[in-house]
Design goal:
By secondary structure, this protein is an alpha+beta fold. The chain is about 35% helix and about 25% strand. The protein has a four-stranded mixed sheet. A four-stranded antiparallel sheet has the order 6-5-10-9, with no helix packed on it. Strands 2-1-3 form a three-stranded mixed sheet. The structure holds zinc ion. This is KCTD7 protein.
Amino acid sequence: MKSIISFSQFHFIVPLNVGGTHYTSTLPVLRKYEESMLAAMFSGRHIVVKDKDDRYFIERDGSNFGHILNFLRNSSRLPPPDKVKDVYHEALYYGIKPLADILRRHRSIHEEEEVARWAEQCPAAQEKADEIADLLLNKFADTLRRTSRVVLQFDQEPSWESVHLTGSTGETIGGYYKPYAFQQDEGHKDHKCPQPEISMGEMSEKEREKTLSFIDHHFEKLGYKVEVVAGECREAVWSQKEGSGMDSITIYCTKQIYTLTFT
Ligand SMILES: [Zn+2]
């Protein structure tokens, strides 16, 4: 009995239908990388479905298959930078390891994988991103604006800056200086920075950086552009006028906050 599909059934020229997009290639090109899924598909060992026009059918988005074919034809032909991510995923799907290996070194892929790893290592990053997304959707829903801001803060020790003005000129003469009276005063210890809407918990400098980068990538995928600006709380928490010249000392909170602008 003759097998339904056999090696000899493939012609040298192979018409393809990839998810509705038509391509034409040749057997040696499709079989170029032995371990690839395409080589297996056209090895004669598997059953391959055909469409009504006798084209071999691959159930996959066809828009980037041309880049895969170009690489099989000539391994120096790489996709343009804006297609790298999509083609990388196709290369993984088709099992074309040499192409996947080249594209993995591309900055966008490297970043994407780094970011995905971070989401695994630090589940809080994903949780916070979801929290920000919920807040953001509410903010956008309330207005018709195209821009919205979310202020974040990581847990940190209190930090202050003292500004010392002379009564006569109003000039700043003091840098970092905490008056004794301030240190004795309990009031400022309750200071909670008023701007932050989301508390990010305790993270090291490196963890903060990675989490912010994760948020950036995460929201880019959700269709937002994110601009992160680091700043300080700058709330005046204590002040005192002193001396005969009425010098004044004001203590400002200098805890770091991050303002994320989403467009
Ligand atoms: Zn503050």
